[in-house]
Amino acid sequence: MRGPKVPEYMHKVAIYVPGKPVEEVERELGVTGIVKLASNENPLGSSPKAIAAVQNALSTLNRYPDGGGYVLRRAVAERQRVDIDQVILGNGSVEIIEMLSRAYVEDGDDVVMSQQSFVSYEIAVRQVNGNAIAVPARPDRGHDLDAIAAAVTGRTKLIYLANPCNPTGTYFSRAELEAFLDRVGDEVLVVLDQAYLEYVDKADYPDGLQDLKQGRNVIVLRTFSKIYGLAGLRIGYGLATPEVIAHLNRVRSPFNTSSLAQVAALAALDDEEWATFSREHNLRELAYMHAELARRGVRYTPSVCNFILAELDADIKTLFVEFQKHGVILRPQGGPGLVNCARISLGTREENDKFLRVLDRLVLNA
Ligand SMILES: Cc1ncc(COP(=O)(O)O)c(C=O)c1O
């Protein structure tokens, strides 16, 4: 074998497996009309204001983007009523997760998270030879905040809380968050990942921005990939104290967000109409799919997001392939607590009905 060798710990870094693109499955199977319910994207499209902004910006592609993303950061800061130096942009919020590792985690440090949560947390920790401490979820698949707090040691640098959580669709309340923050104190930076915040329709859901403003040691992560429909452009942001943001800026790549992503996000931020339209569609489809799964006796975890985790009681790898042959891409799950589970992103009503028809045929033999 030719050198150089990668460090030993690199062998423990899982390669992120994304939802399969429609084109890939259509090419493999020689079919058309595949429905993708695999990546929690907005099935209605992108914010129209964002699309118009991108079209207007196409003539400036010869120039580098504003490396500091000043205009977008200023708009986010105004919207969220924080200082501009409390905002950082990422090439998707996942890039901020990686920056957090590079800025804070050294060999042998611990980062605590729920076992049934976003896989990128663990990948990012292992990339820098940290220990990813995965705490089993509660039986209802919610974060076990008591056990997460109990897992904190003197070596813990970060705690990831996905609220709501992917792939479970669960959330925890304001009272639960405050009790947790009281217990963990100030020494550990708590990452409140709110990628799906705009979809949540629960009065007791806590927006971490409030905790940041009250002086808690938290960073809030948001994305334009979900409700704003800009997953393909890759842009998200983080909100924290100026000190935390300065540390992240030290490890941020130059020009990490593209000019098109910046102008699209700026326009999307102003597109309340699109967010409301998408939220209302999602709430309708969420209620519909909960009811349709319950009616069929399929076990699922009640969700507050734009996807549902279901237990399909069949070998999920085989079923995943069968679903594709019948025109539907799901996201198979695995690992502790998620055996034979699939995450189903909510689509249009037509797409959701297609999923239900294939489910009836393949799983329920109806
Ligand atoms: C919980 C959670 N956080 C972060 C992300 C990353 O989103 P992006 O990098 O597209 O902003 C995702 C994407 O699926 C997610 O589910």
The low-confidence parts are: none
Order of helices and strands: HEHHEHEHEHEHEHEEHHHEEHEEEH
Structural class: alpha/beta
Rounded average pLDDT? 96
- Widest sheet: strand ordering: 2-8-7-6-5-3-4
Total of helices:
13
Quickly list its features:
binds pyridoxal-5'-phosphate, seven-stranded mixed sheet, Aspartate Aminotransferase, domain 1, 13 helices, globular, 2 domains, four-stranded antiparallel sheet, 366 residues, alpha/beta, single chain, Aspartate Aminotransferase, domain 2
Structural account:
- 39% of the residues lie in helices and 15% in strands.
- The protein is of the alpha/beta class and 366 residues long.
- It folds into 2 domains: 8-45 and 273-362, Aspartate Aminotransferase, domain 1; 48-270, 3-Layer(aba) Sandwich (Aspartate Aminotransferase, domain 2), CATH 3.40.640.10.
- The protein has a 7-stranded mixed sheet with strand order 2-8-7-6-5-3-4, with helices on both faces.
- The longest helix has 24 residues, at 272-295.
- It binds pyridoxal-5'-phosphate.
Quick take:
By secondary structure, this protein is α/β, with parallel strands linked by helices.
Element layout with pairings:
Elements: H1 22-29, E1 35-36, H2 48-57, H3 70-80, E2 87-90, H4 93-104, E3 110-114, H5 119-127, E4 131-135, H6 145-150, E5 156-162, H7 174-184, E6 189-193, H8 208-213, E7 218-223, E8 236-239, H9 242-251, H10 259-269, H11 272-295, E9 299-301, E10 307-311, H12 316-325, E11 328-329, E12 331-332, E13 341-345, H13 349-362
Helix pairs in contact: 2-10, 3-10, 4-5, 4-9
Residues 40, 92-94, 118, 162, 166, 193, 195, 223, 225, 231, 236 line the site of pyridoxal-5'-phosphate.
